[in-house]
Amino acid sequence: MKIDVLTLFPEMFDVFNHSLMGKAQEKQLFTLNRHNIRDYSLDKHKRCDDYPFGGGAGMVMMPQPIHDCIMAVDPSHTALRIFMSPKGETLSQKKVAQLANCDHLLILCGHYEGVDQRVLDSDIDCEISIGDYVLSGGEIPAMVLIDSVARYIPEVLGNREATVEESFSSNLLEYPQYTRPQEFNGMKVPDVLVSGNHQLVDEWRRQQSLELTKKLRPDLLKKGDL
Ligand code: SAH
User: Fold this and answer.
1) CA 139 to centroid of ligand 1, rounded, Å
2) Tens-place pLDDT, residues 112-167
3) Which of 36, 137, 148, 188 lies in the 20 to 30 Å Cα band around 61?
4) Pocket test for ligand 1, best of 9, 62, 84, 91 (most atoms within 8 A of CB)
5) Ligand 1 centre and the CA of 68: distance in Å?
6) pTM of model > 0.90
7) Ligand 1 atom nearest to 61, measured from its CA
C-alpha cells in the first residue's frame, strides 16, 4: 500500500518512524510519502492561507497549492483521495477494513478554519472524521487513519489473527487480557486461561466479550452480526 499525505507540517508524521509502523515501513509493507503543500505555493512568500470571503474568524487554506500538490502526487487519479474533516463520515473499524483494501490512499490535512470548498469539490473523493469534536489540524486525524489502516496490512502486526479477534471487528469489545506473572499484588489470572483447554478458553473469552459489550457498549450489540 502506498499512502501520500499532503500537509503543511510534514515533520509531524515522524511518529511513524517508531514502533510497529517504523518496522513495517523498513520491511516495505507500506510506504508513507509526506508532501509539503507549501512547496506548491506560487505566492512569493509561500503563503497557503488567506482571509475568508464573507468575513469571519480565522484563515482558509487556498485552493491553488493544494490542487497543484494533488496533481503532482496523483496525476492519473489512482488514489482514493480523502480529506480529513469533522464534516466527514465518522471513522469506524468497518471503514478501516474497507480502506485497507485500497492500494493507494491520498490524505489531505486541513488547517486553520479549513480548506477552500472548490478544491474539495473538484479533487477529493471522500471526507473522513475521527469523531464529533474539532482539532486544530488534519494531521492527528490523518495519523489515526493511517495507523488504524496500516494495522490491517498483512504482516504489519506480525500476527494476522490479531486484527480478526480484537475490539469492534465483530461488533464486540475484546475480552480482558493477562500476561505474566500469574499472580500480581494478590490478584490471580483466571484459572481457565492456565487450564490448557483451548475450547474452554475460547468459550470464556466469548462470554467475557459479550458481557463487557453489554455493560459498556450495548449499542454495538444492537448492530447484530454476532
Ligand atoms: N472550521 C472547521 C474546522 C476546522 S479545524 C469546521 O467547523 O468544520 C482544521 C482542520 O482540522 C480541518 O480542516 C480538518 O482537516 C481537521 N480536523 C479537525 N477536526 C477533525 C476531525 N474531527 N476529524 C477529521 N479532521 C479534523
Assistant:
1) 10
2) 999 999 999 999 999 999 999 999 999 999 999 999 999 999 888 877 556 777 88
3) 148
4) 84
5) 21
6) yes
7) 13
